[in-house]
């Protein structure tokens, strides 16, 4: 099952040429989830060959412009494309007001239903569930209310052992039943226990998105054991005072959090425009957490 | 005196890779005026080496997203850059509400004064004046209220004849006075009439911006005799029905308007994403108006 993230933007608020503000697309079993939607996200989708029409769920962490200013344009374009399927938008309650006023004054009556779910910045919450995944929010600590998102793959059914299918001539329509624990009786009347025909599925994987936040460790429980952690790393650690003042995290702190959470992989992002070269941020993080990578635009990472 | 326009974006609402929505910078004697501010304008300014800090006046024609969605990001970045000088924004009254709500929820208290001037879509109005230029609005006819802008260079003082300066040894501090009509008495006591020392200034030039509008000829008086006309040409003329339905203009119609207005130069823009190649729009316009050009991004045109 595919579970990967493509970075569309990982720059912080001040613009820098050829880097884009926060946006990324999570592909979970070919369902696409857009996380944050900074200005220019539409162009970034086009550039990366991702059809905006495939999106059905959009998650906005908070109401700083570099995380949501591309949303009205994207939603308007989907309207112009003639979309009729609903779009589900999850974000701070005030986002609805911001969207409504702009559609009102542009006299845009969306051709598709816009289903808005107000997130709660002060507590953990399960906000979405489908057969593959559960999505939870948790509080981050930034200058304004901000939520993190955690995407948890569900425990999957065991996998059928291919050799057994051939050996016993198991009909294809039996396979889903066997996975659910029903024993198989072959043509000779011999019963084969489901447990002998299957093996454990791969353990569920998970992805957490933490941008923007001061490094205060309060959300460490919410990201515990995550497979891949995207964490903001706006500054290098020599600017830790500035990071704290602006409620941001340093690259070193992001690595410490990843280590403490027992993450397998750390993606660093939300880079300040002061850094023309980003490798030093990666090097700094790797002094603490070896599997730290830069969330560079256009790159796709398996979760 | 410099009077030129640089195109930052000339695409219409539906996004297309590597083309940007409406935005352009008019340079009048090194004062920069931003006209419309579609999503991604900040990036386009960076790409074209135009410092956003040099902008003091922004003009928004109407509240369709492809004409203003880059504004909150741009104004926020100027705040982050530490700007203290006022920024003057001219646009539909509801734009103020759209800006205010977003600054409110992002808890952004701009470090600089934002001076907002509500334009009136139903009548002509002088909205700005400085020693070089007068800026007027006039009504266009679109799906929502929309104004055109006309930038009129003021009649300039006559030019001093350089040969006379040398011949008569005219001191440099006398030149502005002579331009204002004060005669010059040389060392021998001979009086030289100001009129003999000067020649007529170049005739004042003007720039008109018409996007978006149906072709209804009602604004022809307002653009009469304009030096350079920027006019939307969303479609080619084989789509004139669709153009009228959507309150847009075809390339042929834009050329007819330029001809009727007696413009010297026509810049075509606001191209539909359906046109991958834009030259046919230029060719169509040139069948009626020879000096028609595509307002391509990154190009600068003398007004």
From TrEMBL, chains A, B:
Pfam families: Anti-Pycsar_Apyc1
UniProt xrefs under CDD domains: RNaseZ_ZiPD-like_MBL-fold
Catalytically driven reaction(s): Endonucleolytic cleavage of RNA, removing extra 3' nucleotides from tRNA precursor, generating 3' termini of tRNAs. A 3'-hydroxy group is left at the tRNA terminus and a 5'-phosphoryl group is left at the trailer molecule
Entry's cofactor comment: Binds 2 Zn(2+) ions.
Xref: InterPro entries: RibonucZ/Hydroxyglut_hydro, RNase_Z/BN
Binding residues annotated for Zn(2+) 1, in chain numbering: 62, 64, 142, 212
Cofactor list: Zn(2+)
Top-level division of the source organism's lineage: Bacteria
Positions contributing to Zn(2+) 2 binding: 66-67, 212, 270
An MF annotation (GO) of this entry: 3'-tRNA processing endoribonuclease activity
N-terminal signal peptide: none
Function: Zinc phosphodiesterase, which displays some tRNA 3'-processing endonuclease activity. Probably involved in tRNA maturation, by removing a 3'-trailer from precursor tRNA.
Subunit structure: Homodimer.
Name this protein carries in UniProt: Ribonuclease Z
Originating organism: Arcticibacter pallidicorallinus
């Amino acid at each position: 099952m595919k579970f990967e993230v493509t970075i569309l933007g990982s720059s912080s608020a001040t613009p820098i040429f050829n880097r884009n503000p926060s946006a990324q697309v999570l592909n979970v079993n070919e369902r696409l989830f857009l996380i944050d939607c900074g200005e220019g996200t539409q162009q970034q989708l086009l550039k990366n060959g991702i059809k905006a029409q495939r999106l059905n769920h959009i998650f906005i962490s908070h109401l700083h412009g570099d995380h949501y200013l591309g949303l009205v344009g994207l939603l308007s374009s989907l309207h112009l494309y003639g979309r009729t399927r609903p779009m589900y938008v999850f974000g701070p309650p005030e986002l609805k007001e911001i969207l409504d006023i702009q559609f009102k004054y542009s006299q845009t009556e969306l051709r598709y239903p816009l289903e808005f779910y107000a997130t709660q910045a002060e507590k953990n919450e399960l906000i979405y569930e489908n057969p593959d995944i559960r999505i939870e929010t948790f509080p981050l600590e930034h200058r304004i209310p901000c939520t993190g998102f955690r995407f948890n793959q569900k425990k999957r059914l065991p996998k059928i052992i291919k050799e057994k299918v051939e050996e016993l001539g198991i009909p294809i329509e039996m396979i889903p039943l066997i996975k659910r624990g029903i024993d198989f009786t072959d043509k000779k009347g011999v019963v084969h226990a489901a447990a002998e025909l299957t093996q454990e599925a791969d353990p569920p994987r998970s992805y957490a998105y933490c941008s923007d936040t001061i490094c205060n460790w309060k959300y460490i429980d919410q990201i515990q054991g995550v497979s891949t952690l995207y964490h903001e790393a706006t500054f290098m650690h020599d600017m830790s005072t500035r990071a704290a003042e602006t409620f941001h995290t340093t690259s070193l702190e992001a690595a410490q959090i990843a280590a403490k959470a027992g993450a397998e992989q750390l993606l660093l992002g939300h880079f300040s425009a002061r850094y023309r070269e980003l490798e030093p941020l990666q090097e700094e993080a790797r002094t603490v957490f070896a599997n730290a990578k830069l969330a560079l635009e256009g790159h796709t990472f398996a979760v």
